[in-house]
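Hi team,

As requested, here is the filled-out complex form for the D-gluconic acid run. I kept the field names the same as last time so the parser does not choke. Let me know if anything looks off before we queue the next batch.

— J.
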Amino acid sequence: MSENMSTSLFDLSGKTALVTGSSRGLGRAIAEGFAKAGARLVINGTDPARTQAAVEEFRAAGHQAEACPFNVTDEDAVVSAFARFDAEGIAIDILVNNAGIQHRKPLVEFTTDEWRRVIETNLTGAFVIGREAAKRMIPRGSGKIINIGSLASELARPTVGPYTAAKGGIRNLTKAMAVEWAAHGIQANAIGPGYMLTDMNQALMSNPDFNNWLMSRIPSKRWGRPDELVGTAIFLASDASTYVNGQTIYVDGGMLAAM
Ligand code: GCO
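And here is what came back:
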């Protein structure tokens, strides 16, 4: 493949990407990767100050970025954000539904409200924002939707039941989006991160017993780095994947491949 071919295929220049939960963690890493590939970024987080600070860092690095803080569980805020995009002529070409929370305890001890909070944040938010984005992508005849799943989209472990249910839902919501929106030039896919070095997993990283178990389960024998998701994200966000739809690509160090 010539240098020009490989570069243009993965070029995001001229595209605008909204990445939820992109002021830190996996979303931040993906947003930074998109910016380096030429995209204009809409940075989202629940904390306006942290979101704006992230935007300033993107701009200081020479990238185009603006802030759009909202909680993905606040449907009114999501609808208002897209109304603002419409009013300002901002077309979201690429949506990454990354925002999510974790809550660990035995399933039998979860209150229904605690269950709902995880489902609302990790699954319903992706539906609401995906719907609002697709309403604008369909008339344009193009769009990229990337939902962030998990190894928990396929496998379960004790104490993360609501998260596992939500991430399993992400895997099939992605298929539902793909089958309804592919004819409109939209590719909807998911990325399933393995055990990544993020704030959400600090409690696990600092637990020797968990680490020993995890290293026995991962062929790569190490935690993944957030930047190791960027290549897959750019692939799914770019013209390199125009006939890929409904797939979940696992970036997990081989964990799902192992017995
Ligand atoms: C946990 C972790 C996992 C990872 C990741 C695995 O408590 O087991 O939080 O859920 O975050 O999602 O793919």
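Two things worth flagging: Residues 102, 104, 150-152, 157, 160, 163, 193-195, 200-201, 204 surround D-gluconic acid (CB under 6 Å). The beta strands are 16-19, 40-43, 65-67, 94-97, 143-148, 186-193, 248-251.

Thanks,
J.
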